[in-house]
Here is the input.
Amino acid sequence: MAVQSDGKSQLFVRQSTGLVREANALDATIFNAVFSAPVGATLAWGIFAALSMFPGADLVTATVIAGIINIPVLIMMALLASSMPRTGGDYVWVSRILSPPLALISNFAAALSATIGATYWARYFPVFALGPILVTLGITFDNQDLITWGTNFQTDSTWIFAGAMVMVILMGLILTAGLRMTFAWQNTFWIIASVGTFIAFAVLLIGTNADFVKNFGEMNAKFGGGTAQDVINAAGVAGVTPDPTKLDATLPTVFIVMTFMMWNWWSVYLSGELKTASNRRRQLSIMFGALAWDVIFIALGALLLFKVTGYDFMVAVNTAGNAAYALPTGPWYHFMASLVYAAPALTFIIVGSFLFWSLPAMVGNTFMPIRTMFAWSFDRLLPEKLSEVNERTHSPVWAIWAEMIIITAMLIWSIATTDFITWLTLGVLAGVVTVVIVAIAALVFPTRRPDLYQASPANVKFLGIPVLYIVAPLSILCMLFLVWCTVAYPALVMMGNPDNIWWIPAFIGMIIVIGLVVYFGAKFIRRSQGVDIDLVYKELPPE
Here is the structure.
């Protein structure tokens, strides 16, 4: 056991984390919403992929279903987060209720999913934001240089890496500046991006299909393409409509929506730095506020787009290899909205604002793995350097830049391989591992740790039954549904090949193995140093 200078034993690295509760409820709500499903970015590239994979998919119904099945998960997470509001989230709960090895597996799964997400949003900036925006502006203002640059940011590996690294370095500098500065950047960018998205909504609400068809046809013809109807005919989807009763299309679409929208509980990793984090109502309002925001505006955004473009056109334009679509950029949401009136100033505002979605989305994806490294280091599982905190900014600088290095390595790999999108969807299964383990901990919390449960905000009943006994099993059922989707619909994570089903247990097995190796490896090393790390799990870590 480590010994302080006064001769007393010290379970943790120090008696205070050094982190400060500077985040408020609005910060945390935005943090959840932009981590889980940043509305504009999710609409720009994400859920519309379902239209080409599963024609007839009803995106609105799928989004509502995704919102409903998230409810028990959010209640469970809110109860646990308010009961043990510490940095590390599920790592603290599971290690104190179940066992440290399971906590490592659960927390590593979430950290892996977040790091994959951070890499995705770094790539999103050049490929799905900056590149398409430059092309759109080049088309609008008849500037070939902008078109060339925009195309390079979408297709050239060097340009993609350079654009993505801008986001990685900027994110590292912002996080290093401290939590208050991080949320100032997050909230400012979110406001700008949201304003642009709502302007796009207004344009789609007022605009007509006739306006869109006319402007699209004229612009597409400049590059040798056809009319909107030509695009529909080329894909052979004329007259296709959304059908919520077509379960083979709607159910896998729920999974696609959940890829982005299953994370509105992510503020649990902010609990150690959130004001009044032990307030159950505050935790619930943060999570459900973010969920409502995502469900309402993703569904509304899809409905408004279909109103102007037509559902069958969006299916056709998202179908790969459509020769009638010749525009040198993808059919992104903001680009489609800008074609309703084809007014240069309006196009600049709508398209330009979508640049601002990447950074807010990256905040949660980088924040969580950094706090994971911090929490593990604080409990002596990782080198103590990773839990050092800058006295002025209260930020764990070493952990921040360690995560930026990991993201950079994953970015290089993702650009060099064609399998990154598969990893993005597999990231959902990493979330499944986390939620299932947390649900098991929630189920046994009242009986296994009555000393913590009885006086905690989690001690609440519905019709005489502990709420955890209701929401935990429902959360597990929700996660089993997502796993079933990956098996039943190979297009989701197995590249359409059922023979690749072994990827699913292999991926989950990898998470389990790495979590166990980290724990038992650290335990062995610390034991050789005369430190019993199991003792830290007998009590909650200090604030």
